Amino acid sequence: MAEPPEEPSPQAVPQPYEPGYGLYQPGYGPYDDQIPDPTHQMLAIQNAKALLLKSSTASGLNLYDHLANMLTKILDEQPTNVVDIIENISRDVKWTQFRKKMDTLRDEHEILPTFEAAEKRKALFLKANGEGAEEIEEEEIGETSLPNVMETAFYFEQAGIGLSKDESYHIFLALKKLISVQPVPQTCRFWGKILGLEMNYIIAEVQYSEVAEEEETEEEEPIEEEGKGMTEFEDEEEEKEKDEPPKSMYKPPPTIPKEENGTGANKYVYFVCNEPGNPWVKLPPVTPAQIVCARKIKKFFTGRLDAPIVSFPPFPGNEANYLRAQIARISAGTQISPIGFYQLSEEEGDEEEEGGRDTYEENPDYQPIPVAEMVDSLSSWVHHVQSILMQGRCVWLNPFQKSEEEEVEEEEEEKADEQDDVQQEIGPPILTPLSEDEGIQNIPAWTGQTSTNLIPEYAVAVLQSNRWPGAYAFASGKKFDNIYFGWGHKYSPENHNPTLPPPVQAEYVSGPEITETSDPTLEEELAFKAAQEAALSIAEEEEEEEVEDDEEEDEDD
């Protein structure tokens, strides 16, 4: 008779709250013929699932999720010989669960450059009232000083010159904003773009009908304090005159005043900004000293108007003044127009004797010149801006010329110190043809070309300056314009050589009246002392004899 199977000890049987409970209960064994109890089977499944869901203390993963991910991967990819690569699949699934430890700091919100530029230029597309209304006011339709930048850009684009259409249109809107903010100018023009190391300069040229004089505040000296203590000042001056050191005989050269606003190099007012949408900044008037110094140095622009100019000779100003000086030089050498388009105004009569005429007017009887002739002959173009003299002015000024009162007061000084006669500088008159411009060694001053050779009927005449690279001019019919795109430097066939410092000043002429005597030797000092003692003893003896003689005379009386 067969023995019944041994039942497990109570200690080895899992309790209902432990995983694996129900595996050893009667009726659940795989070899039992009895029907299993459903309650015991569900409990065993729950306990087994709880065992698989137990998380690892090292990785934080559990076997249940890992097996589920493995099966999902196998069913999705359906590889061959799964049993042979089950270990690799397990490793790949674990790698996908890897997460890099992120920093606790929040990521800074990054603003895209395109979004930032769009925010700056958003104001350009709004009207003065702040609303983008589509209705056009009647005032805007009438005559305005705003130039058609897009039309000018179209003509320059025929020769491959200019900016992109988007940037040209943004500059167009920026000029419109400038006119709305500033007083209504007589003319406004897009002068060009000067490149910089950090930022660029967009330049607008404006001319006002009424020149606004700058207010110069001069400090007034108090009159009452001058009368106080005059006697004290006189006494101090008498004491100083006794021990005054020698005065320097050097006389600095006279300062040449700048030209008035609306004339010469300051005929136009210039506004600059780094990008369309930024506020326009007015450049200060240029002085002759700045123009003269700008010819001797060569500096790249940074794009910051307050940047210092470190150079030799020292430049009198910052980058804003240097930019204004370069604009004046470029304008004087590259602003051209077809011959006959302008004519001298008849109002000026006596100005020609002083420094030449500087105003002109449009010729109503102008007839366009053929494009082929304007390209082949430089005599078809003229300068309509005054040239700058070596003095730094467009109109020469005698620096030693004095008023009548000063001449009366300083007649004696002028006779003693006669000044050399200063030769007057005379530049080329306005509306001078380009054929008279001097070339650069074997390079002509200007190079002309047509915009196209395939369709000459609709070609545009384009001139390029070789002296100022980046300066261009076009002419088509009765339309022409000038523009500049460059670094603001003049072309030189040789490398730039900075100006050498002046020679060292010679020493003062040595003479006996200023020569220091050498120290005496010991023997000379002893001999000098002995001579002094002998002189003292002789003087004492003479005094004693005089006293004795006086006493004897008194006794005789």
Strand order of the largest sheet: 4-3-2-1-12-11-10-9
Beta-strand content: 5-15%
The rounded distance between the terminal residues' Cα atoms is: 194 Å
Rounded mean pLDDT score:
81
What is the 3D form? flat
Main beta sheet strand tally, sense and closure: 8 strands, mixed
Helix fraction by DSSP (H/I, runs of at least 4): 25-40%
What does this structure look like?
It is a single chain. The protein has 557 residues and is of the alpha+beta class. It is built from 16 helices and 12 strands. The protein has helices spanning 38-52, 63-77, 86-96, 113-121, 138-141, 149-157, 165-181, 224-227, 230-242, 288-294, 319-334, 351-354, 371-376, 404-409, 411-416, 522-556; strands spanning 187-194, 201-207, 269-273, 281-282, 336-338, 342-344, 360-362, 381-383, 446-450, 461-465, 471-476, 479-486. It has an 8-stranded mixed β-sheet with strand order 4-3-2-1-12-11-10-9, with helices on both faces. The N and C termini lie far apart (194 Å). The model is unreliable at 130-142, 213-230, 349-354 and 415-419 (pLDDT under 50).
What's the short version?
The chain has 16 helices and twelve strands.
Describe this protein with a few key phrases.
557 residues; alpha+beta; 8-stranded mixed β-sheet; two-stranded antiparallel sheet; 12 strands; 32% helix; flat
Question: Helices, strands, pairings?
Answer:
Elements: H1 38-52, H2 63-77, H3 86-96, H4 113-121, H5 138-141, H6 149-157, H7 165-181, E1 187-194, E2 201-207, H8 224-227, H9 230-242, E3 269-273, E4 281-282, H10 288-294, H11 319-334, E5 336-338, E6 342-344, H12 351-354, E7 360-362, H13 371-376, E8 381-383, H14 404-409, H15 411-416, E9 446-450, E10 461-465, E11 471-476, E12 479-486, H16 522-556
Parallel strand pairs: 1-12
Antiparallel strand pairs: 1-2, 2-3, 3-4, 5-8, 6-7, 9-10, 10-11, 11-12
Helix pairs in contact: 2-3
